[in-house]
Amino acid sequence: LKICCCHSNLLDLSGLLVLVCIPRTRTKHAEATFSFYAPQIYKKLPENCKTTIPDACKGEMKCFNHYGGYLCLPRSASVIPAPEPAITPTPAFNPCPLGYDPLSLPSLFCFSHTDIDECERDEHDCQPSQQCINTLGAFNCQCPRGYNKVGTECIDIDECRFRYCQHRCVNVPGSFSCQCEPGFQVGGNNRSCVDVNECEMGAPCSQRCFNTYGTFMCRCDQGYELGPDGFTCNDIDECRSSSYHCQFRCVNEPGKFSCVCPEGYQLVGTRMCQDINECETGEHQCSDTQTCVNIHGRYQCVDANRCQEPYAHNSDNLCVCPHSKPACRDLPYSVVHRYMTITSERSAPSDIFLIQTTNFLTGSFNTFRIRSGDDNRDFYIRQTNNYSAMLVLARAVSGPREYTLDLEMLSGHPLVGQRSSSVLRLSIFVGPYTF
After folding, report:
1. pLDDT for the residue numbered 13
2. Predicted pLDDT at 241
3. CA angle 130, 131, 137 (to 5 degrees)
4. pLDDT of residue 80
5. Does residue 211 share a domain with residue 262?
6. Which residue range(s) make up the domain with 221?
7. Above 70 in pLDDT, residue 8?
8. pTM of the predicted model, to two decimals?
9. Worst-scoring range by mean pLDDT, 20-29, 275-284, 417-426?
10. Mean pLDDT across the chain, nearest whole number?
11. EGF-like domain spans which residues (predicted)?
12. Where residue 143 sits, what CATH number does that domain have?
């Protein structure tokens, strides 16, 4: 067996020298049949047999193109194509570190400004809730503000655990908010609570408003009271709350009250009523022949001469009946007219009028009595000494009413057998009111 070696000095693109040896038979004319298993990729290689080295194989040998060179085989040999295997794409060779591209192929220089932006190329594995941040040669998956990265997920941070808020904290996804109690508002730092001056913001107080920490209070003016709602001021009816505000009549007004007096009286101060003395003020209509007598709440005009027969008018209010007249023998020598007024329901017993003799004879003795006019025994006499006595109101009487009492003084002397008497005719007017 002889071995015929065919060789070639051809260098392919990879710079390899190919030497192929093929066995041959001893018989010169005999031809051996050869088969060569050639992958399909060979068909895509450069045709070295035809273009690179013309007439490369000699004699009975045939040139077959081969990866990196060629083969000389008997002419009876044939190429049987093999099934084309699946082609797996091979990444292009990148001389730069992971995350970088060369500035320009086939350059072998890598610069920082040629960094691959995986975020822009969408070549990252960040979750939809995460934000891709490009870095030199790599990228980071960051969670939004308010989230913590736990593994590959973003978990909301419950900021309320850290008590950032002064009053109430409300956690929301990725953040939080502070809320304040009623009467407060969130301050400039969005965390603290400051007092709200409700009085300057239209608090519903009907009269006066006082701001306090966190709230407000409504107050009322004098004469008003705060209603059940805490806002409305209602008028106080002072007249209903007490019967002692006014001596006569109370008139309620918004926020206050006033006192009024009956006709013939005037208000003294704010609540007391005083009788108007029309006889002194000149507000009467008595004639010149009459005398004005003031009584509680009104006045009365009486004749200046009230003497009746057989009495004769002697002087103002004095009537005399001399014993020289037969008709006067059994009558008091003199009658003096007097007038007084008392209030209704005056407390009793009460001293109301002093009786006193003006003519006193040494050695004489005097007694006093109510001669007439006291049918109901509303009065009595209390003698204090030999020349004076006191008229006493025995019980309270109601007016308006008028009494005419004849108060008699009886006088006697041991040396004079005859007794004399004088009468004080007292007109008592009881007013209609207790004042």
Report:
1. 31
2. 85
3. 120
4. 66
5. no
6. 198-235
7. no
8. 0.55
9. 20-29
10. 82
11. 115-155, 156-194, 235-274
12. 2.10.25.10
Tell me, yes or no, whether 336 and 367 share the same domain.
yes
Q: Looking at the predicted structure, is the pLDDT value of residue 329 above 70?
A: yes
Our count of domains for the chain comes to 5
pLDDT at 108 over 60: no
Distance CA(417)–CA(166), nearest Å, equals 114
